[in-house]
Amino acid sequence: MNLRVLPDANQDDPQLLELATLCEQTVAACRVLGADQAEVVAHAASGLEVGVRRDQVETLIRSQDVSATVTAWRAGRKGVVSVGDMRAASLRQAAERACAFARLTEPDVHGGLADPDPSPRQRPPLDLWHPWALEAEQAIELARQTEAAGRDFDAPIANTNGAQLSTRAERSARADSNGFLGTARRTRHQLWASFITRDARGMQTGSWYDSRCSHQDLQDPAEIGRRAALHAVQRLGARRLGTRQCPVLFAPDVAAGLFGHFLEAVSGAALCQRASFLSDGLGQPVLPAFMDLHERPHLPRGAGSRHFDAEGVAAADDALVLGGRLQRYALDGRSARELGMASTGNAGGISNLQVRHGPEDLDGLLRRMHTGLLVTQVMGQGVSIVTGDYSRGVSGFWVEHGAIAYPVDEITIASNLREMFAGIVAVGRDVDTRGRIRTGSLLIERMTVAGAG
């Protein structure tokens, strides 16, 4: 059985192949030491982070990191050891300690490696490797350009929280005693800025960022700076709202957070702990009938794209929700065994989630809502995945006659996630592609808004 996932592009990378060899050797050492099963995951990463504020360099970090995690099982007992040293002797010692620890822990009847996956493994090009040969001076200049564009944007800009640029390249390898060997590599580059405005009502902050696996796809530094400043200026004159019930429109990045709660509720961890408001949702309507959610692990340059999950199970395009009905949960090997199901290849979470959207953009959804609340920022932790209760502090804009009337803050929105998901009216085509969850603006029929009065 061929369980190797070594994309052709990776086979010309000596550092990656060395990681793979060390993983295989350490798995073999665990078996010799008496482990029934073993898994080794290794990472090697390099990065650069720069932060400037008022044109002065506040942060300059060049990093080089290596790590490995060795897991051994004996009679259902698990031992785990992590090290920051990739020398063969250190990995051998880690294997010895992991096997020793596996004699001390309580057995877990559902534990162990994911079941071997004999299915053909698709290996489409993911195009995730785009190192940025950036010197510190160049990074500082780009961050300064970003901040300068925002500071020059408009007179109300009173101060700056600065601009930050980061770039990271990571290689990883995984081997286990079922014969799996896989390698992956990816890069991630990010540029961020934040500014402060002030008026008689007080101070407001606005920010913006972009994050991509290729620096060539990043928004222009000046555009990021201007958008961050614009968000701050638009917040001037923010008011509070009286308590009411009304439609709520979530901006794309905030909508992604809502679907993040959905993914948590259908995860194996929550289901096995009986800590999910969707524990009885399989096959049931959980979203409106016009909605589909698909996992797309092979999106080129996707933030979560991968050939296999954290347990080596093959990643494949698959529906999570079709026609509003929940088609499956998101399970790793352990949770699948406890629930009497098969792994869905979601150890480590969902890869990329794609939310089906309609034809309208944000302006179209504002007109459709007519009167209500546009949420652009959420604060606080008032979400219960167990019950679905939802209460968050938010800021954004009040909308009248299909157009933004004025900014609002210091308000709270409340409902229940089950009701919120059932009450989705539309999803916009203004899809945010920066993260793993790809969704446009999300219009919900009704929520409680609490503020002054």
What is the topology?
Elements (H helix, E strand, L loop, with lengths): L3 E2 L8 H19 L4 E17 L2 E19 L2 E7 L4 H14 L34 H16 L5 E20 L4 E19 L2 E11 L8 H14 L9 E7 L1 H14 L2 H5 L20 E3 L22 E5 L2 E2 L6 H7 L13 E3 L6 H8 L2 E8 L9 E12 L2 E14 H6 L1 E4 L9 E2 L3 E9 L3
Parallel strand pairs: 1-6, 8-13, 12-17
Antiparallel strand pairs: 2-3, 2-5, 3-4, 5-6, 6-7, 8-18, 9-10, 9-12, 10-11, 13-14, 14-15, 15-18, 16-18
Helix pairs in contact: 1-2, 3-4
Structure description:
This protein has 453 residues and is an alpha+beta fold. It has two domains: 14-233, PmbA/TldD fold; 242-452, no CATH class. The chain contains nine helices and 18 strands. It has helices spanning 14-32, 88-101, 136-151, 221-234, 252-265, 268-272, 333-339, 362-369, 417-422; strands at residues 4-5, 37-53, 56-74, 77-83, 157-176, 181-199, 202-212, 244-250, 293-295, 318-322, 325-326, 353-355, 372-379, 389-400, 403-416, 424-427, 437-438, 442-450. α1 packs parallel to α2. The radius of gyration is 24 Å and the shape is globular. The model has no long low-confidence stretch (mean pLDDT 95). Belongs to the peptidase U62 family. Residues 130-236 form the Metalloprotease TldD/E central domain. GO terms for molecular function: metallopeptidase activity.
